[in-house]
From TrEMBL:
DNA-binding region: 28-47
Organism: Amycolatopsis nalaikhensis
InterPro entries hit by this protein: Homeodomain-like_sf, HTH-type_TetR-like_transc_reg, HTH_TetR
Listed name of the protein: Helix-turn-helix domain-containing protein
Keywords: DNA-binding, Transcription, Transcription regulation
A family per Pfam: TetR_N
Length: 177
């Protein structure tokens, strides 16, 4: 995927911030243009609609998450620690988008942008626990994966190496490993 121009990237950054703070439905394109100090037609030049802007914000995260999972599924034999560390890295790298995704789940679902992300925990659970895990193993995996995601959002100012070590250790504990 090509890197967006500086103006386009500024629009994406401001839109992400406003969408996260005020919600997608309560943020108008005029709000975004005003924050940027540009005209609404200039914004439309880069993004023809709010839906397209939302898709442009979320798509790189979805593509990155899908790429991570496909690589792990193709590999098939990744140690659990590597899977957990990789999922932490993904969530930390995309924490601003994950916050928006969680806050705006109904809106993103209406745009067809949520199903893939919702399936990731199921796919990761299979990689961690095997193809037919029992309820306890599935519950532990979901707790571990959800906890990793939450830690990335809850402690944005923590040193990343310390946070990763603590989060991975907690996830492995939740998994009983």
């Amino acid at each position: 995927m090509p890197k967006p121009s500086d103006t386009k990237q500024r629009i994406l950054d401001v839109a992400r911030d406003l969408f996260t703070t005020h919600g997608v439905q309560r943020t108008s394109l005029q709000d975004i243009a005003d924050r940027l100090g540009i005209t609404k037609p200039a914004l439309y030049y880069h993004f023809p609609s709010r839906d397209e802007l939302v898709r442009s914000i979320v798509a790189p995260m979805l593509d990155d998450g899908e790429r991570f999972l496909l690589e792990q599924e193709a590999r098939g034999d990744a140690p659990v620690r590597e899977l957990i560390e990789g999922f932490f890295d993904f969530n930390y790298r995309h924490r601003a988008d994950v916050i928006m995704l969680l806050a705006e789940m109904p809106t993103l679902a209406d745009l067809g942008l949520i199903d893939k992300a919702l399936g990731w925990r199921t796919r990761l659970t299979r990689l961690i626990c095997g193809p037919d895990p029992g309820l306890e193993a599935q519950a532990r995996a979901i707790l571990a994966l959800g906890g990793l995601q939450d830690v990335c959002m809850q402690f944005p100012d923590a040193p990343v190496d310390e946070l990763k070590a603590a989060a991975v250790a907690g996830a492995l504990d939740a998994l009983g490993r």
